[in-house]
Design goal:
This protein has about 260 residues and is α/β, with parallel strands linked by helices. Bound molecules: zinc ion (2 copies).
Length: about 260
């Protein structure tokens, strides 16, 4: 919409934040208000070099009441600056993707924004959510990366009218100046929604559910999704891309569940 049309609409219907319904004012990241934007708990180092799991200290947890997270096992990260740190699950059984980074914790205003985006039919939220990914994660993306959104189950995309991962990927690709290849990954069959399943069931549910194009051979692929939960879906996509010859597979998500 043109600037004058937005201004005219603002006069009639003052713009409201889709998360907290406050009128949009200073610091806004349309359509999020400044308070919600600032309230996003961004993931910053130190985190697992493989999966991006943030390492919290006891002080962090006390500061953040309500965001309980894993505590660094050594409690002494300061002493190992420079050496890559891995969380214990990655040290024991690393995921099928080479690296993962999420912009923020799936909590508070970010969880609300992602839920409104997906279930409240607010595709306009792709803009600030992609901006958040660029702000927090651009440095992790390899120079010649090709972005590939994780495909949504066909029936869910039909219900929703859009694939949220594709909307975010499109904007992140534009921000990075990287190519976007939506057709490099496809679903081979329908899968049950992952929400009600535990980690083992999630892996079984998506096993063999994706196929990748051989066009991915030799590429540094970066998968894009909205939320990282157990990583089962992204892991399965990474396996398919590897089978098609991808040189590396990373994962960018807006948010991460702890
Ligand atoms: Zn708000
Ligand atoms: Zn890890």
């Amino acid at each position: 919409m043109r600037g004058w049309a937005v201004a005219a609409l603002d006069l009639v219907f003052p713009a409201r934040c889709p998360v907290c319904a406050a009128a949009l004012g200073a610091g806004r990241r349309d359509p999020l208000c400044g308070v919600c934007w600032d309230g996003v708990v961004r993931i910053a180092p130190p985190f697992c070099a493989r999966c991006g799991l943030p390492f919290f200290t006891f002080a962090d947890i006390e500061d953040r009441h309500g965001f309980p997270g894993p505590v660094c096992a050594s409690g002494d990260l300061g002493g190992h600056v420079g050496a890559p740190q891995f969380c214990s699950p990655c040290a024991v059984a690393p995921p099928a993707f080479d690296w993962a980074r999420a912009a923020g914790l799936y909590a508070g205003p970010l969880r609300d924004a992602v839920q409104r985006f997906k279930f409240g039919r607010r595709p306009a939220l792709a803009r600030p959510l992609a901006a958040l990914v660029l702000e927090q994660c651009a440095a992790a993306v390899p120079a010649r990366a090709v972005l590939v959104p994780i495909p949504l189950a066909r029936e869910r995309e039909r219900e929703r009218g859009f694939n949220q991962a594709a909307l975010v990927a499109e904007r992140v690709a534009r921000g990075l100046g990287a190519p976007l290849r939506e057709r490099w990954l496809a679903r081979t069959r329908a899968t049950a929604p992952q929400t009600e399943l535990d980690a083992v069931e999630r892996r079984a549910n998506v096993r063999g559910a994706f196929v990748a194009s051989t066009a991915a051979a030799g590429a540094d692929v970066v998968l894009v999704d909205d939320v990282l939960t157990t990583g089962a879906t992204a892991g399965e996509c990474a396996r398919a891309l590897r089978a098609a010859g991808a040189a590396s597979v990373g994962l960018l998500t807006v948010a991460r569940v702890l």
